[in-house]
Write a structure and sequence with these properties.
Layout lengths: L1 E8 L3 H12 L4 E5 L6 H6 L1 H19 L1 H4 L10 H25 L3 E4 L1 E6 L2 E5 L5 E11 L3 E3 L12 E2 L1 H4 L8 E5 L3 H12 L3 E5 L11 H13 L3 E3 L3 E7 L4 E6 L5 E6 L1 E4 L3 E3 L32 E3 L10 H15 L13 E3 L4 E6 L2 H7 L3 E7 L4 H6 L5 E7 L5 E8 L2 H13 L4 H5 L10 H12 L6
Parallel strand pairs: 1-2, 1-6, 2-3, 6-17, 8-15, 9-10, 9-15, 10-11
Antiparallel strand pairs: 4-5, 5-6, 7-16, 12-13, 13-14, 18-19, 19-22, 20-21, 21-22
The structure holds flavin-adenine dinucleotide and nicotinamide-adenine-dinucleotide.
Length: 467
């Protein structure tokens, strides 16, 4: 039996980053992954492949719709989905190989197989040939992630009624696609196919899209995506989806309670993800899951058994790669006797549509509900010289600051490269900056970042310079 200080089950961004940090701290570390490639959902079927296809489809969209105005004449532009998917697969395999390199470089033992708890200090790995190995470990980190969720009546058959995983590998560009759920996955993957010419029709349960973000973002994104051809059916309750051979038929109840039907070639089910703990044999170590399927953890990310930790999508909180990574580092440092800290309020969220949506801190709705008195500063992207130069004029930056102290409480933006721009706000908030602090920082011209300075000026004294 091999003996380790730490054994990690699952090699997604939570697990593999935890492994690297454990090794850096001198802990003898093993990582177990059931698939033959490392990297988990994020690298194999999540963040990386979706962004690869988003970029390819964005290039195509620009070539068809925007190059002419820039004075670039291109004829017979065609979308070659198979090549886009090949390139995406290449990006994925290079990125996964990079994780294997990092494991080897840090002398982390990698086991391929399903990891299951035998007791609180033993993990059994079963490989595809049925061979088993027992690993004895002082500490165990569960980082088994999540899988796509669905509700009764919309069970994916993975052929025409699909999840994000199949949507990353479609054999053709659909003519029409229904998307159940106007959240992150629905809008990102809907954008990929929408840009390639697919008619996208979203069926959303809530009264707005991206309903957990600040409501201004949902309104602005709806406007932008409608221009791109998206159709939205809000407050619709899906009853059933049927595979009719070459098409799908979706039946829903609209907000008046009337039955409505929608037909398309494919239906993407994107109604959230659920924690994955199948095969872990949690009971053997005295653990269970809560009614949301998550493993309960305390503020130190310890489960009910103190030497067993859990991180990432399998525990409470945002299902995001960077949140899982922070938790991986946190647990490694905790095991090594350090006193790490995570500020969950400052975990940024991004939707990689174009323009991108990004946010950190509290939404206006959250501040209202908490009875906090706040002020709002905002600035439209179209007022920027850079935006006109680049022909990217949609969006805005919105800053929420405490009415008394001027401390920045939330920043929400829909803007080109908002995913990168948001880091200025995260840094400022980490150091508890006021809106005036942000407004007084010199921003390079001409950039999209000037919209942050202007929104901060607007929040400080309603004195934005360029509107
Ligand atoms: P995972 O990445 O899910 O990894 C868990 C790993 O554990 C898997 O490899 C699994 O095979 C393995 N495993 C499970 N059980 C066992 C077992 N018993 N034995 C051995 N191995 C096991 N997040 C972002 O922050 N940004 C994005 O742009 C983004 N885009 C996304 C796009 C899509 C289409 C999807 C689906 C998700 C996206 N996410 C994004 C979410 C992100 O992928 C997850 O939040 C992140 O992967 C969670 O990391 P994790 O380590 O907790 O789990
Ligand atoms: P989500 O929670 O973002 O969106 C799900 C949407 O489905 C919501 O708008 C919800 O109101 C709606 N919905 C729920 N039940 C419904 C029903 N019965 N009928 C119609 N609509 C319904 O979930 P997702 O888009 O599936 O993504 C899953 C997770 O993956 C998210 O937690 C997200 O954080 C993560 N993810 C992140 C990124 C990113 O960071 N850019 C990208 C993709 C996925």
């Amino acid at each position: 039996m091999s003996a380790y200080d730490v054994t990690i089950i699952g090699s997604g961004p939570g697990g593999y980053v935890a492994a690297i940090r454990c090794a850096q701290l001198g802990l003898k570390t093993a990582i177990i992954e059931k698939y033959t490639t490392l990297g988990g959902t994020c690298l194999n079927v999540g963040c990386i492949p979706s962004k690869a296809l988003l970029d390819s489809s964005e290039h195509y969209h620009n070539a068809v719709h925007n190059f002419g105005e820039h004075g670039i004449e291109v004829k017979d532009v065609k979308a070659n989905l198979a090549q886009m998917i090949n390139r995406k697969n290449e990006v994925v395999s290079q990125t996964c190989a990079g994780v294997k390199y990092l494991m080897d470089k840090n002398k982390i033992d990698v086991y391929t197989g399903i990891g299951a708890l035998a007791d609180k200090n033993t993990v059994v790995v079963s490989d595809a040939d049925g061979k088993t190995q027992s690993l004895s470990s002082k500490n165990i980190i569960i980082a088994t992630g999540s899988k796509p969720n669905y509700f009764p009546g919309m069970e994916p058959d993975k052929k025409r009624i699909i999840t994000s995983t199949e949507a990353l590998n479609l054999p053709e560009i659909p003519k029409r696609m229904l998307v159940i759920g106007g959240g992150v996955i629905g809008l990102e993957l809907g954008s990929v196919y929408g840009r390639l010419g697919t008619e996208i029709e979203v069926i959303e349960f809530a009264p707005s899209i991206i309903p957990t973000m600040d409501s201004t973002m949902g309104k602005e994104l709806t406007r932008v995506l409608k221009k791109e051809g998206f159709k939205f059916n809000l407050e619709h309750r899906v009853q059933k989806v049927e595979n009719k051979g070459k098409s799908v038929l979706l039946t829903a109840l609209n907000k008046k309670g009337e039955e409505v039907t929608f037909e398309a070639d494919y239906c993407l089910v994107a109604v959230g993800r659920k924690p994955f703990t199948q095969g872990l044999n949690l009971e053997a170590a005295g653990l269970t899951v809560n009614n949301r399927g998550q493993i309960d953890v305390n503020d130190h990310l310890q489960t009910a058994v103190p030497n067993i930790y859990a991180i990432g999508d399998v525990v409470r909180g945002a299902m995001l790669a960077h949140k899982a990574e922070e938790e991986g580092v946190f647990v490694a440092e905790q095991i090594a006797g350090q006193k790490p800290h995570i500020n969950y309020n400052l975990v940024p969220g991004v939707v990689y549509t174009w323009p991108e949506v990004a946010a950190v801190g509290k939404t206006e709705e959250e501040l209202k509900a908490a009875g906090v008195s706040y002020k709002v500063g905002s600035f439209p992207i179209k007022a920027l010289g850079r935006a006109r130069a680049s022909m990217d004029t949609a969006g805005l930056v919105k800053i929420l600051a405490d009415k008394e102290t001027d401390e920045v409480l939330g920043v929400h933006m829909i803007a080109p490269r908002a995913a990168d721009l948001i880091m200025e706000a995260v840094t400022a908030m980490e150091y508890r900056a006021s809106a005036e602090d942000m407004a007084r920082i010199c921003h390079p011209h001409p950039t999209y970042s000037e919209a942050i300075k202007e929104a901060a000026l607007d929040a400080t004294e309603a004195r934005a310079l360029h509107v």
